[in-house]
């Protein structure tokens, strides 16, 4: 009796692999996994299904897919690369997720749900030969496709010797049309904003030998970032981004690639008794050459003078010879009480952790700073910010009383110092909630003038323009904030989604909202409205059901009362989307 051999068939095989997976995982493991999962759910898997492909297997950073039609396989590969190109336009180059794809037509061996054989091996080797964001195919694929696909051309790379295959393989590179070029153009979104001299300040090392002084080194780094951000001619990466390198040994050129900057600043601080020693270096990231270095050995009370000297020296050295004296630099009032200053530094770092216990400790430290120096404006401003966090997250017993407390602290801070960008930033948000659009716009303009590179101020500019009915401009500002802070909070995607929705760019709005890894009911409400506007009743209904599951008492009227639209037409557009999705009035 003859035993049947393994099943064989001719198949189009697509092999894909993610570029730089290990590097991205090392920098941000959770974020990388979340973004990869999002791309799979929103883009890659639906495109494969649309082109009648079958996913055979996946690895952490790659996959193997079988198609019955070679045309479907190439169409799938082209669509994935085009759409990934558009997605990468909104993030820094170092965080691009790019894939190499190889497509082969050949004989495969079928074993239950898996496939093996020469057809699979060649596809894997073609994938390795592809450029990031590119596609390579075999001569068999090229011959079968012919000239049938619009916007797809082939470049003959000749015969290539590849690993573990004895014969040479004839390879063709797929060239997509202009809308689908295989890598973001040099003058695209990622670089257009960075034509000004750009700089990243790495966290200063604490050389005191005392872990309790860590906050002092971190606070000094933050202050230097803030001072440099006041110069309109500089693009300064935010502290949220650069602090991912805290405590890590890194190469300057790696940091520069990560953030897309021209220069890097690094340094150290040693505090002992009443004296402080600060060393600082400005490095040309392209050549890894030290442009300038200095050491400051002073009395502790000279800390603000040290900051001023460092920022003036750095700005004077950068290309364009940016002269500090020619700009309207804010004359912020500092404190002569070093204990109060240290309390504020520690409180700011606790605030960034965004949890209830650290928030309470931050409040205690700010109360102490204000007790030590009641005229310290920045302490009042940060107390308002910390109290605002308790109001937003509901960590307070009486929300109305907390809101009033935030307002009173801001009034005090403003009276003490009209040149603090955080005071104006928070006042802009406060007045927006009061529907006082003119006063909100005034404080937002002041905040932006005082600190044009502060990502929280820049993104708030985009938010405010959206509320005022200018969403196209809002999109531009929000994208700029994302460039300033490549590790921006996820809520930036929510702001971008709202702006796109108001601009009636619903596909872009849906993509922005689906970037949020842990959406709450408000995000699902926006997605429900967005898909309803797109005519996708199934998706709209699914998100509406999720809203009611998470917030059973949801009503459109109550929800819209929390929105801050100035124009009725914007409010009505939002209402129409929610009601069309089936949410209760």
General description of the model:
- By secondary structure, the chain is an alpha/beta fold.
- It has 24 helices and 14 strands.
- The strands form 2 sheets. Strands 1, 2, 3, 4, 5, 6, 7 and 8 form an 8-stranded mixed β-sheet that branches. Strands 9, 10, 11, 12, 13 and 14 form a 6-stranded mixed β-sheet that branches.
- A hairpin with a 4-residue loop joins strand 13 and strand 14.
- The longest helix has 22 residues.
- The chain is globular and about 80 Å long.
List keywords for this structure.
585 residues; alpha/beta; Alpha-Beta Plaits; Rossmann fold; Serine Threonine Protein Phosphatase 5, Tetratricopeptide repeat; 3 domains; eight-stranded mixed beta sheet; six-stranded mixed beta sheet; 24 helices; globular
Short description:
The protein is α/β, with parallel strands linked by helices and 585 residues long.
The CATH topology of the largest domain turns out to be Alpha-Beta Plaits
Output the radius of gyration: 28 Å
What is the end-to-end distance? 72 Å
- Helix % is 40-55%
Largest sheet: 8 strands, mixed
DSSP helix count?
24
Q: How many domains make up the 3D coordinates?
A: 3
